[in-house]
Amino acid sequence: MGKVKKGRNRKKTSILFVLLLIFGVIIAVGVYQNMHQSSSQSNQEYSAAEYFEIVNATINDGKLRRNETTGEIIAVEIYSISFEVKAVKGDAHNVVVQGWARSQPEELGTILKGEARAVIEQRTSTSAPYLSQKNADGKFPMTIRITSQEASGFIIIYF
Question: Is residue 114 within 8 Å of 56, Cβ to Cβ?
Answer without folding.
Answer: no
